[in-house]
Write a structure and sequence with these properties.
With about 450 residues, this protein is an alpha/beta fold. The protein has three domains: about 55 residues, no CATH class; about 60 residues, no CATH class; about 240 residues, no CATH class. Helices cover about 35% and strands about 15% of the residues. Strands 1-4-5-6-7-8-9-10-12-11 form a ten-stranded mixed sheet. Helix 13 runs parallel beside helix 15.
Length: about 450
């Protein structure tokens, strides 16, 4: 083996370069195991010798991941905490002393009510713990905001040392920590700064074609610089959502102008994304609630699509969109479709609205709760009516694609096929390319009298 040239060793190593789990599992019900892989052949090969390490290294980091730090680092500063600091002034760090002096003067003008019970829930300020802040670190109520781990500095240094920046094609940012301060107005600024720091550091040191963010809905909303737009998240009990953003590899984009998008610190404006994929997981828990059809799932995707529609010019807007969920409410699909109507650049859309073959939740009583299967399939059918209506009126160009991953199940393939055939009967040309995939063909359009849409909006 040692006598072989590097070119042959690279060829050998490439056969061990398996697709990353974040691609294969992206359509599965979201969990914290998105990036977990049992077989790590490339990693094992990289440990054989220093020569193999050098050969494998650029391939090994094609698909990288960064886990956000789990440690809480923020302290709510209120009048009671400042009073407690008074008895330990001699042991405070310089940073803690600055906080004490600043907040003490601030409380002087509000001393008549700063200790009232009505003041307890009012967050005066959020302060990030720094090195040496032993007093703040001992406070029992330390809060969490998303932030990069300290090890990211070492990773960035490693990337530079081995010239890996342009070898890293994909990066997955993930956490299972929930952001719990979304109702606290004074937390907005610290959250914005924390998220801005995450994306500025990621794109300063890396140049990924693909970015995936996996996080609980409350945290994902913060990481995407948007809101949840729902007070019913408790009913859905969604532990995690995924979003995938991919750049085009077909060549440089001819921008209409330098202001074709804001190019700000928000993730969706960091790069001219070609594809947006979203997986919101299962809505089944909500079917067990009273008047379930009135519940609203988290709306981060809807808000992101609206931002793309209103803030991004056609030259660098998304061409491809994919949505994955398990029995989402048809009202949720209607909301997403309304936003998609405003994005005028789509050339491919893909959906999965039922459990995949890897998911057996329909046979687990604990997961089903009081949900009734007929209700689940009713919402599934209503959702596909909405999608079919969209396919019938959106101005897709020739060759555009519609794909349904639900068609992996033969019975569902027949159902979806019926909806597309209904469009064809009404004069909209969608030709079946294969099971679960249709292609827009204007040559197959037929003149027809105006007909009602397939769903009431």
């Amino acid at each position: 083996m040692d006598s072989l040239p590097n070119e042959l060793l690279i060829q050998i190593a490439s056969h061990l370069d398996l697709p990353p789990p974040s691609v294969a599992k992206f359509t599965h019900e979201p969990s914290s195991h998105l990036t977990h892989l049992e077989q790590t052949h490339l990693k094992a090969l990289s440990q054989v010798s220093w020569r193999w390490r050098k050969i494998v290294l650029p391939i090994l980091f094609h698909y990288s991941r960064v886990a956000l730090d789990k440690d809480p680092q923020w302290v709510p500063i209120d009048a009671r905490l400042i009073e407690n600091m008074l008895g330990q002034l001699t042991t405070l760090s310089n940073h803690e002393m600055q906080i004490y002096q600043k907040m003490r003067s601030k409380f002087k003008s509000s001393s008549t009510f700063a200790f009232d019970e009505a003041f307890d829930d009012l967050l005066i300020n959020l302060c990030r713990i720094q090195e040496g802040d032993n007093f703040l670190r001992s406070v029992p109520n330390i809060l969490w905001l998303p932030h990069l781990p300290k090890s990211f500095v070492d990773f960035a240094r490693f990337v530079v040392q081995y010239n890996l920046k342009h070898h890293i094609k994909s990066i997955v940012i993930f956490t299972d920590n929930e952001y719990e301060l979304r109702h606290v107005a004074t937390a907005d600024a610290p959250l914005s700064r924390a998220v801005s720091e995450i994306w500025s550091q990621i794109f300063l040191h890396l140049e990924p074609i693909r970015v995936v963010v996996a996080a609980p809905p409350t945290t994902l909303a913060g990481l995407l610089d948007t809101s949840m737009l729902s007070s019913d998240a408790w009913a859905f009990d969604m532990k995690m959502h995924y979003i995938e953003l991919v750049q085009s590899e077909s060549g440089p984009i001819e921008h209409l102008s330098s202001k074709c998008r804001p190019w700000n610190t928000a993730l969706i404006h960091q790069r001219p994304w070609y594809h947006l994929g979203y997986n919101e997981g299962s809505s089944i828990t909500a079917y067990s609630t009273y008047e379930y059809h009135l519940k609203q799932s988290p709306k981060m995707l809807y808000l992101i699509l609206l931002r793309l529609a209103t803030e991004v010019r056609n030259c660098c807007n998304i061409r491809s969109f994919a949505f994955f969920g398990v029995f989402p409410f048809s009202t949720n699909i209607t909301t997403i479709i309304r936003a998609l109507h405003k994005v005028r650049t789509l050339r491919k859309v893909q959906f999965r609205l039922s459990p995949g073959p890897e998911n057996n939740l329909l046979s687990i009583p604990k997961r089903m709760g009081r949900a009734q299967p007929p209700d689940l399939w009713l919402e599934w059918n209503e959702s596909y009516k909405v999608i079919a209506s969209f396919l019938g009126v959106y101005d897709f160009e020739d060759g555009s694609e519609f794909a349904s991953v639900d068609c992996e199940e033969p019975r569902l393939a027949i159902e979806v096929d019926d909806y597309v055939q209904m469009l064809q009967k009404r004069g909209t040309g969608w030709l079946k390319a294969e099971t679960g995939k249709w292609v827009r063909a204007h040559s197959e359009d037929k003149e027809r009298a105006p007909a009602p849409t397939l769903v009431n909006e």
